[in-house]
Design goal:
Layout lengths: L2 H10 L3 H7 L38 E2 L2 E2 L5 E10 L9 E5 L16 H4 L5 E5 L5 E7 L10 E7 L6 E7 L20 E2 L2 E5 L2 E7 L2 E3 L3
Parallel strand pairs: 3-11, 3-12, 8-9
Antiparallel strand pairs: 1-2, 3-6, 4-5, 4-7, 7-8, 10-11
The chain binds fe (ii) ion.
The site of fe (ii) ion has 4 residues, from strand 7.
Length: 213
């Protein structure tokens, strides 16, 4: 087994408790406190037009095969109300580039990422603790934009949240052109490198706070 396969296999088997104890808490919220809603950010041109086929929370496996490019990223967090309560039944969607900077979208590289084994977008629904968790890669720069993960969160009774997640040290884009958020610092996480012998990968925690309609 080569190193990439071994790393991916290990990332897949990280115990959740270990993962949660090692993640950065750049956007962590404390339960019960009055929270600020997560800033909205531009939807961008590559929202998936069809949510069919394999659209689960594991973007690293497609058709039973592992995606071996890029840096594995465990992306976790909770969907919360501004009053601090966890939201169950919230639908969380993400979409992002593959390791070559291409989206799985007809206007970018079509099904190219999927043909290369990257799922490109994923969706899951939160349970009672409001937790979401995706296995993906760290996205890469494209067309001058810093690496980012797109999010769309829908929960009954709450304003739909469309936003983007950025990475500390790479959030170099400034200004408000194309409607990008001015509150980048609140959308930026510090990913943690998980390294234990042969284990290597990134984890990041990003809570999503929704305001009531
Ligand atoms: Fe984008």
């Amino acid at each position: 087994m080569n190193i990439r396969r071994r790393l991916l296999a290990l990332v897949a088997t990280w115990p959740l408790a270990n993962l949660l104890s090692s993640v950065a808490h750049a956007q962590t919220a404390s339960s019960g406190a009055k929270l600020k809603a997560t800033p909205q950010d531009a939807l961008g041109p590559y929202y998936p037009p069809r949510w069919t086929g394999e659209v689960d929370a594991d973007l690293l496996t497609l058709g039973g095969k592992n995606y071996l490019q890029g840096v594995p990223l465990a992306l976790t967090g909770r969907v919360l109300s501004v009053d601090g309560g966890a939201l169950a039944g919230a639908t969380v969607e993400i979409w992002q580039t593959d390791a070559t900077g291409k989206y799985r979208h007809p206007d970018d590289d079509g099904e190219g990422p999927a043909q290369r084994g990257f799922q490109g977008f994923g969706r899951m629904t939160t349970q009672g603790d409001g937790q979401y968790r995706f296995r993906t890669i760290k996205p890469v720069l494209y067309s001058g934009r810093p690496p980012h993960v797109h999010f769309k969160v829908v929960a009954p009774g709450y304003r739909e949240l469309v936003t983007q997640l950025y990475f500390a040290g790479e959030n170099t884009e400034r200004g408000n052109w194309f409607g990008f958020s001015k509150e980048r610092d609140r959308l930026t996480v510090v990913p943690v490198t998980v390294n234990d012998g042969n284990r290597s990968g990134l984890s990041a925690r990003f809570d999503l706070v929704l305001e009531r309609v």
